[in-house]
Design goal:
The chain is an alpha/beta fold. 34% of the residues lie in helices and 24% in strands. The protein has 3 domains: 125 residues, Periplasmic binding protein-like II (D-Maltodextrin-Binding Protein, domain 2), CATH 3.40.190; 81 residues, D-Maltodextrin-Binding Protein, domain 2, CATH 3.40.190; 86 residues, Double Stranded RNA Binding Domain (2-Layer Sandwich). Strands 2-1-3-10-4 form a 5-stranded mixed sheet, sandwiched between helices. Strands 7-6-8-5-9 form a 5-stranded mixed sheet, with helices on both faces. Strands 11-12-13 form a 3-stranded antiparallel sheet. Strand 1, helix 1 and strand 2 form a beta-alpha-beta unit.
């Protein structure tokens, strides 16, 4: 029997259970779409995975979860990278591009508490674990009596620490819990209108080299346009705000009738100041929608928040 030589495609991914689930899902979709493909996973340990005892803001921000993977992509050690979009900085490195974005999973946050108490009923002084300044700011804004504690690690680690009493409650992304089948019974999915999600939360980004037309062609069937339009508006907001893990930012785009409607906010880390707004526009103007809303929130007090946080380098 004649042996068929398959084209090898290597996926660079973090090694956490969630990252591997996401990469395995992309692998399965690609091999189903293209029977002539052999897809291998290449786990890569990132700086963000290695350093677990300090906040991301202290050690340089969310880019620490992707830098080593992007370096491998640029060097040719892998052919594509699969990321959680919320881990991506606003700007892509030269030579790389997001070539496909599959349909988004649930973008909301989930509160997991010891006795299944909802957020509004948590006692004053409840210790809530999170490493996200966005979650910290919104928690303290909605419930100033809470005590927010640094809690890093993958999904399994944070669930275990909550069960062991390291904290009384924690907040995780619904998408990760659903993908891993780990949604606890004592959980409350938080209303996104009140607890606005992180930029890109629930979305996967398939990153390739910008000039690798053959690989781009292979991943494009996984692309979901409505997800991409919504996330494009969210990421345009992020770029224009000059935001990072040092800035409590949130944004969520919704698509309806060829229009993108973006809701976003910037907050002070202690939750005492939350500046929120909305902007709509045609799908093909998603970048402009995000930029316009960022400029408006900056003018309404966001610039002052950034200045107090010491953030510099905001796009003009």
């Amino acid at each position: 029997m004649k042996t068929v030589n398959k084209m090898l495609l290597r996926i660079g991914t973090r090694g956490s259970a969630l990252a591997l689930w996401q990469a395995e899902w992309v692998k399965a979709q690609l091999e189903r779409q293209w029977p002539d493909l052999q897809v291998d996973l290449i786990p890569i340990k990132t700086s963000g995975d290695r350093i677990q005892d300090v906040s991301l803001a202290t050690i340089g921000g969310k880019g620490l979860f992707v830098k080593e993977i992007e370096d491998a992509l640029l060097s040719g050690a892998v052919d594509i990278a699969v990321h959680s979009v919320k881990d991506l900085p606003g700007d892509m490195p030269p030579g790389l591009t997001l070539s496909a974005m599959p349909e988004r999973e649930d973008p909301r946050d989930v509160l997991i508490s010891k006795n299944g108490q909802p957020l509004t009923q948590l006692p004053i002084g409840t210790r809530v674990g999170t490493s996200s300044l966005r979650r910290q700011a919104l928690l303290l804004h909605l419930h100033p009596g809470l005590h927010v504690e640094l809690l890093r690690g993958n999904v399994d680690t944070r669930l275990r620490k909550q069960r062991e009493g390291v904290v009384d409650a924690t907040i995780l992304a619904a998408a990760g819990l659903k993908r891993l089948g780990l949604m606890p019974p004592n959980s409350q999915i938080l209303d996104e209108n009140e607890f606005l999600p992180a930029i890109g939360q629930g979305a996967l980004g398939i990153e390739t080299r910008a000039d690798d037309t053959q690989v781009i062609m292979r991943v494009r069937p996984l692309h979901h346009e409505a997800t991409a339009v919504a996330v494009t508006a969210e990421r345009a907001f992020l770029r224009c705000m000059g935001g990072s893990c040092r800035t409590p930012l949130a944004a969520k785009g919704n698509i309806e009738n060829n229009m993108v409607h973006l809701t976003a906010l910037i907050a002070s880390p202690d939750g005492t100041k939350v500046i929120r707004g909305e902007q709509s526009g045609l799908n093909n103007a998603a970048e402009e929608v995000g930029s316009l809303l960022a400029e408006r929130l900056l003018a309404q007090g966001g610039e002052e928040i950034l200045r107090k946080l010491g953030n510099v380098g905001r796009d003009p």
